[in-house]
Amino acid sequence: MKGKTRSEQVLIIQRLLICGIIAAHGWARFLSDAVAPFGAWLDGQGFPMGTAIAYAITAIEIIGSAVLAVGIWVPYLSLTFAFIYVMGIILVHAPVGWFVVGLGRNGMEYSVLLVFCLLGFAYHSWPKIKSNDD
Predict the structure, then answer these.
(1) Nearest to 60 by CA among 43, 84, 42
(2) 132, 109 contact by CB (below 8 A)
(3) For residues 34 and 38, what is the distance between their CA atoms, to the nearest angstrom?
(4) What is the torsional sign of CA 118, 22, 94, 109?
(5) Burial of 15 (0-12, 13-18, 19+ CB in 10 A)
(6) How far apart are CA 10 and CA 2, in angstroms?
(7) Rounded distance between C-alpha atoms, residue 47 and residue 92, angstroms
(8) Ramachandran region of residue 33, left (φ > 0), alpha (ψ -120 to 50) or beta?
């Protein structure tokens, strides 16, 4: 990270940590044979092709997190992951409340933190548009 400012270094470390969390989420689902049950649950929620969606989300979490970790397609992958986790908040976590543990269980606090970190990465790395004044 030589040549990077302290704030750039912090963003890289945060991005790597978030990528590790996202990868663990996808790998855990894949290795525990939970992709098909996730797809069946999506089908039950009214999503067409729930199993295909579940496999796509899992692949994006596994492959996309590695790509994001090396700093490729940061704004686009960050927005993709943010969308996935916003849908998780809407479908799973918000109905059971805010807290993940303690005063509640499976709430949305953790997912909200992930979403805002991902939106921050997208905002920070979004390609700058040059104007005539630059």
Answers:
(1) 84
(2) no
(3) 6
(4) negative
(5) buried
(6) 13
(7) 14
(8) left
Pair of tokens at residue 42: 């999506």
The tokens for 24 are 């663990």
Per cent of the chain over pLDDT 90 is 87
Residues 105 and 92 sit within 8 Å (Cβ to Cβ): no
72: how many CB neighbours lie within 10 A of its CB? 11
The 10s digit of each residue's pLDDT in 51-60 is 999 999 999 9
- Token pair of 91 as six digits: 């479908």
Q: How many residues does the chain have?
A: 134
> Which pLDDT does position 104 carry in this prediction?
86
Res 111: pLDDT: 97
Distance CA 88, CA 110 (A): 11
Q: Six-digit token pair at 28? A: 């855990």
Contact (Cβ atoms closer than 8 angstroms) between residue 35 and residue 55: yes
Burial class (CB in 10 A: 0-12, 13-18, 19+), 102: exposed
